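Inputs:
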Amino acid sequence: MTADAVVAGQIAESAVLGPQARSRRVGWWGMVLLITTEAMIFAALLSSYFFVRANSNAWPQGGIAAPPLGRISVFTVLLLASSVPLFWGEIAIRRGEIRQLRLALAISFVLGLAFLLNQVNEFRTLGFSAKDNAYASLFIVITGLHGLHLIAGLLMSAVVQIKAGLGWFDADRHQTVLLFSMYWHFVDVVWIFVFSSLYLSTHLR
Amino acid sequence: MTSVEIPSAVDERIERVWADRPGLLGFFTTVDHKRIGIRYIVTSFIFFFIAGLLALVMRAQLAVPNGTVVGADAYNQLFTMHGTIMIFLFNTPVLAGFGNYLVPLMIGARDMAFPRLNAFSYWIFVGAGLFMSLSFVLGKAPNGGWFAYVPLTDKTFSPGINLDFWGLGVAFVGISTTVGAVNFIVTIFKLRAPGMTVNRIPILAWSYVAMGFMVLFAVPAITVSSALLEADRLFGTKFYVPDGGGSALLYQHLFWFWGHPEVYILFIPAVGMVTTMITTFSRRPQAGYVWSVGALMGIAFISFGVWVHHMFATGLPTTAMGFFSAASFVIAIPSAVLYMAWIGTMWGGKVRFTTPMLFALGFLIIFLIGGITGVMVASLPFDLQVTDTYFIVAHFHYVLNGAVVFPIFGALYYWLPKMSGRMLSERLGKWSFWTMLVGFNVTFGPMHVLGELGMPRRIYTYDAGLGWAALNMVISLGSLLFAAGTLMTVANIVWSRKHGALAGDDPWQADTLEWSTTSPPPDQNFTAVPVVESLHPLWFPGPVRLAIPADVDTAARTQGEVGALERTTPITSGLDSLPEFEVLVPTPSPLPVLAALGVTIFFIGMLISAAFVLAVGGLVVLGGITTWAWRTEMDHP
């Protein structure tokens, strides 16, 4: 290949970077591994929770009542439901329908935000502080960390929504959407474990 | 390998496409894995010599009974910082540095999978290193031991800021290790040259895969353990406070769930280096390649089931301890498999005793001793006798100093010619090796005996008449010898910069791809990406060609000079390494260093409990990362 041909080729080829999703992208792997290590953080914290609990006579400690299940169950359903529109959005953008994607992102954002606001409200009416005892510390740090992840997810969602609003995604270029929804699903799935451990299991007698 | 003639006009264009910005700006914005790798190595060696100096001060204090060089509190700071710096700021990052430099070259890629993340990882390491070093400047270095057990390290018994440097610094540097691990795994999974199927991946690359997965599963545990420690210290939570319903033992569990795999996180890349060097200098294909890779994965897996052997003296239930003791024995089996493979390779080969090979052989002896004492302390009754004595100090220096530092020095002699283009002096190298080997064994060998004689760890002085004086003097002299040996290598490196013989592409007649490019390699690593036909591509090359011919256009574009001109690197399928498409290698950017600066400010805010500083740091991170993520649809279609 001569120099001219290479240069000409470069210009021609740069336009060709097209659809090639035959296998997993590097971004997909990056997100999977990030989620793996994040999941380990929650695993370590939940293990700590059960370790301390196994070594305690009373649980919750210090006469704190077991966390009530009513409201949080409703909001848990809302949080888990927030994943559903993202599935729809992913399918939509694969077909290039960016309006549907925008709507899906917005619905999921509102559901996530509702859950977060309920958490903030619950924190304000908790009746105990993280300094009281190990149960209180664990409860607040674990739910708080999940809340931080949710805030991160909402911020990501905001960025993705701006990009969607600017019309940067199409049927071929939407990796950000896929990576963001992976993270969002992770935050939802982690909550199943947190909810089962911190809320449901305290009511087991 | 594949040599395609390229007109010089194109050469210049390629150079321009890959060049960094000039001067200081280029220094802070580069994303070139080679520059970052070398920087990692240099920075971590600075920490190596700082921590070594701390050790020499300790040895000066202990050389004679009732030593008066330093007082008790200074001594506490010395051993704490020696261990902390060696583990977190030398061993881990220096291996990341070698991996950064070597992995893309070895697998035939033009850069790492996430070059900007790579730069971020380095700057985080620098930030965390400076953060922890700040404690020296303030004279308030951590003093609770490198594993910082509670309750000694809680606010009641360690009221100063000292321990906060440790707790926060450890979580801080963990960010760097974690993103580095992600980068290694994805790079090796997806960026391999066409034809480098899973059974042709060099063992060094495999070792970084194993190391990466261990980091992802282990580091969260120490992030949590130190975060909870800091929560207890800064915010008064009760995680580790028994009076508040917490558990001091919880800290040890979390810490060692990371701590034991960490030993292997350091050791496994060192194994990769040693195996590479032994294969090259035995002049024959690696024996038992599949077994060795399996053994690495086995070690990585089993290492998560042995952490309690650090806690035998805490009074856990016997059944539990029996399990962990058994698992600790079991881990000797894959290690033995590795030994068989090394011996097998040398047995059937024609060994050349160059300096790197000597370091590899030194490693074999030292790791054998460290491994055997490891099996000894895995046994419960013996461990209870020697816990917290110098026997343990001897054991873990054999495995962490000997079995990691010797491979690293060997790797310097082996790969520095590739990095700098100049050979090191073999004569001075051999002097350095023998001085280090003798110095090492004179330093740490007698510690086994001292431990048997009952000398506890971490005492800043001891009385005459306990029978420890003579051995301690020997140890202190040995440590000087060891230090002199390491300095000879430094002198050798400095000397080689001007006077070393030119290395040429492949001074060792080695087998892996990094030797197919020039020394030092061009910015794009490979103008034409090689096609790999065997496990030892330079020894058994296949027919020279551009690509696997599934789709000739794609192949020519991804692997030829067009790819180099477009600043792309090929992406291949995970198992068969068939070329699929190409990704653009990100251009130099100030965002990684900016985001790392934000993280540093954030941690300083935590340290001094200043909400304003915290907020500033948080905003810089947020802004940096958002900007970073902003144009990905343009950069990575």
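The mean pLDDT of chain B is 92. Flag for discussion at group meeting.
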